[in-house]
Every structure is written in structure tokens, then in C-alpha cells.
């Protein structure tokens, strides 16, 4: 049986190493998405949803 990835451990609520390359990249992507979303001003709800899904 393969060892679970740190992401799998995290999703199961187990102890995990938070600073693996894939988790760092995921946090960075999330940060960029949140900043982009929060900087929106007069954008339709539909466009907000589209941007959030990117």
C-alpha cells in the first residue's frame, strides 16, 4: 500500500507537513484567487462565480 500524500493526510484531518511543494503552490494559488476576487468592484454575480472557478 502506498503512503498517503500530505494533502490526503490534511483532508482527513491527520497531522501533515504543510510545507510540501504542492501544498505551498495550492496556498499561493488560493491567495491569488482571493485577492483577485476581493478586488472586484462592479461585477455581475455570474462573472464573480466564473472568476472564482478559475
TrEMBL record:
Keyword Transferase in record: yes
Gene3D superfamilies: Hexapeptide repeat proteins
Transmembrane segments: none
Superkingdom to which the source organism belongs: Eukaryota
InterPro entries membership: Mac_dom
Any one Gene Ontology molecular-function term assigned to this protein's record: acetyltransferase activity
Family note: Belongs to the transferase hexapeptide repeat family.
The protein, known as: Maltose/galactoside acetyltransferase domain-containing protein
Originating organism: Aspergillus taichungensis
Species lineage: Eukaryota, Fungi, Dikarya, Ascomycota, Pezizomycotina
Amino acid at each position: 500500500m502506498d503512503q498517503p500524500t500530505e494533502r490526503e493526510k490534511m483532508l482527513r484531518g491527520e497531522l501533515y507537513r504543510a510545507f510540501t511543494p504542492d501544498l505551498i503552490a495550492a496556498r499561493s494559488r488560493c491567495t491569488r484567487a482571493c485577492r483577485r476576487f476581493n478586488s472586484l468592484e462592479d461585477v455581475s454575480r455570474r462573472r464573480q462565480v466564473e472568476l472564482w472557478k478559475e
